[in-house]
Design a protein that fits this description.
There is one protein chain. This protein is mainly beta. The protein has a single domain (about 10-260), classed as Sandwich (Jelly Rolls), CATH 2.60.120.200. Helices cover about 5% and strands about 40% of the residues. It is built from one helix and 16 strands. The protein has one helix at about 10-15; strands at about 35-40, 50, 60-65, 65-70, 90-95, 100-110, 125-130, 140-150, 150-160, 165-170, 180-185, 195-200, 210-215, 230-240, 245-250, 255-260. The strands form two sheets. Strands 1, 3, 4, 6, 11, 12, 13, 15 and 16 form a nine-stranded antiparallel beta sheet that branches. Strand 11 and strand 12 form a beta hairpin. It is globular.
Length: about 260
């Protein structure tokens, strides 16, 4: 059985105190009311999610206390989330304002949870969070994912897509150690997003989170989508090309909090 993250090296790095730069992240007491949590404790298909394009990535399940998405076939870039391409999304509907947190999300080899796929200039493999407009046929979304982005291996990538055009950046090379990170997306009252990440917290609730604002200002690149009152928020795993395949997208937990809009 695979065990959730308890590696000493990560604990030591976390204890060194990476701090949020620029914009401050919300603290847990301000997240709001917990309306959904999945710790993937029941093995089998994910339960109670809205699934978009399930056929392009059929092997998605809860297993051994983790979300696991096994990606071995990316024919015609069918799993890709970029410009006009939309892969699989396993999502929940949520109303602004909200906070969503995913723990220890990232990528690993199918036969070893501790090893990331080999990387090269042509390796694009990711797992992470996506916010999508309520019309799943639209190419309107925002995402934050962890993985290899060509020569920028073990990174956190941020992307906005509006009407089929994407803007994308990342936080730099080898920032997400072992291809893993925690991700926090905050949906504000004005229907904009703030984005944070950190080295995985090995003991959430016991150790303090040390959220880092995405690229210092907590904003994703390019034009921000004009979201309505509600959106879908959920998990994605995808590739571009065939470099790094097969691999597994994985996460320990997904938590969604609903905030009050009268604060």
């Amino acid at each position: 059985m695979l065990h959730k993250i308890k590696r000493k090296a990560v604990s030591v790095l976390f204890g060194m105190g990476l701090t949020a730069c620029g914009t401050s992240a919300p603290v847990e007491k301000d997240f709001g009311t917990l309306v959904f949590q999945d710790e993937f404790t029941t093995n089998g298909p994910l339960s109670d999610y809205v699934v978009n394009n399930p056929d392009v990535l059929p092997l998605v399940e809860a297993k051994d206390g983790r979300y696991q998405a096994f990606l071995e076939d990316n024919t015609d870039d069918k799993t890709l989330h970029f410009n006009q391409s939309q892969g699989r999304l396993d999502a929940k509907k949520v109303r602004f304002p909200f906070t969503v947190v995913v723990r220890n999300i990232g990528i690993h080899k199918p036969d070893d949870v501790k090893l990331t796929p080999e990387h090269s200039d042509s390796t694009y493999v990711f797992a992470g969070l996506q916010v999508h407009s309520l019309n799943l046929d639209e190419r309107v979304s925002s995402h934050v994912v962890v993985g290899h982005r060509g020569s920028h291996f073990n990174t956190v990538e941020g992307k906005n897509t509006v009407n089929g055009y994407s803007w994308v950046t990342d936080v730099g090379v080898d920032k997400a150690l072992n291809g893993r990170a925690d991700i926090l997306i905050q949906g504000l009252e004005d229907k904009t997003l703030r984005v944070f990440w950190q080295v995985p917290n090995p003991k959430p609730g016991e150790l303090k989170d040390r959220w880092i604002a995405y690229n210092a200002h907590a904003k994703l690149p390019g034009d921000a989508p004009a979201y309505g009152d509600e959106v879908y928020v959920g998990l994605i795993t995808y590739a571009q090309g065939k470099g790094g395949l097969p691999f597994v997208g994985t996460a320990d937990s997904l938590s969604i909090y609903q905030s009050s809009d009268d604060k």
